[in-house]
Specification:
Elements: E1 5-15, E2 18-28, E3 34-45, E4 48-58, E5 74-85, E6 89-96, E7 117-124, E8 128-138, E9 148-157, E10 163-174, H1 180-184, H2 189-195, E11 212-222, E12 226-236, H3 240-243, E13 253-264, E14 267-276, H4 302-305, E15 315-326, E16 329-340
Antiparallel strand pairs: 1-2, 2-3, 3-4, 4-5, 5-6, 6-7, 7-8, 8-9, 9-10, 10-11, 11-12, 12-13, 13-14, 14-15, 15-16
Amino acid sequence: MKYLVFIFTLLSVAYLGFTFKFDGWLEYDFEQPTDLAKFSVIVPFMEVSFTASGGFKRDNQVIPPYADTLWYNYWYWDEGFLEWKNDYLSIQAGVKQHSVGPGKIYKLFVRENGFSYPSFRYQTLGRFRIDILWAGLRLVENDSKPAKGFNYRSLVYSPFDGLEIAYEESVLYLNRFFDPYYFFIPIPAPGIQEFWHLNAPWGYPTSLLDDNSMIGGWVRYSAKNYSVYSEFLIDDINMNRFLNPEGFQNPDKMAFLFGFCGQSGPYTLTFEVAGATAFTFQRTTKIRPYEYVHFEDSNLSIEQNMIGYKHGENNIACAISLQYSKDSWSIKTIYEGLIYGTRTPDKPWHGGSIPSGTH
């Protein structure tokens, strides 16, 4: 059994319009302690604010020079971005982490997990909302790893106060850092993906461009003191059950989320259940590394590496959190249970051949 000790400190000071902030934490399990010390500054200028942050951390993944002297800590940069917003829209540009979707604990499409990346995000506000995000994950080819980027967008409609109905999609692509078709053309990403594979002068064979697109959506109802929500993601769905019920049935690759969040006085209770079927988010061929992760062929755990749902494929998880808030401080505790099977996003079909049916 491992014993964990968490220490969290927060200091925020405003001076002459500037905000200086310090965050730190320590995790110790008597084997491989990890820690982080992060410094942030927020500089307002007219209607634009600039945020920059960085610090030192030990994650037992990176071994810096003079490791013994520095206690295995290394310098890292975190975020540096500009933000402009008013009552109708918000624009963010720079190096940043992002999070999308209704979940408080789990995110299916995009979540913050400690890695920042060049990005541009445009959001409108109101009864009909649009959220468009581009993120560049790898600028140029590196050690046979191709340039890589992804796009996310959602359309959210609120027919009346408290109810939200959303369509959302994401696509990860290789061999280019930015794809203007996915960013500007207002048709579903799977349609744009197929456009590249047409037998036409502009077409490309799947051996060169084989993007990984996903679609989904959420429904959320919010009252004064509580909200309930549900979200789903489809990486691939078996249409043979309708078109060829007697033939081969390819696996459904899907993820889901159900949640509740309620508040009573200073207490906030959140309960969520999430999961994914086998083979969701993974590549389906050895030669094209389009699994839905930040870094291929790394020693990072699934939970540290996923772009979206933190536990990846082939699992079901539930979590409950309780938060107490008072004036300018709060404390929160979370308990999570996880059941999982084989999770190998870099190995198509877990190293075997494609199975029949959903697993």
